[in-house]
Amino acid sequence: MKAARRPEVRLPPLEPYSAGGLEPDGDYDGLDFQELDLAGQDGGGARFMDCALTGCALDETRLSRARFLDSVLTGLRGVGTNLADATFRDVHILDARLGGTQLHGAVLERVVIRGGKIDYMNLRTARLRDVVFESCVLVEPDFGGARLERVEFLDCTLKAADLTAATLTDVDLRGAASLEIARGVDRLRGAVISTGQLLDLAPVLAGELGIRVEG
Question: Which domain of life, per UniProt (predicted)?
Answer without folding.
Answer: Bacteria
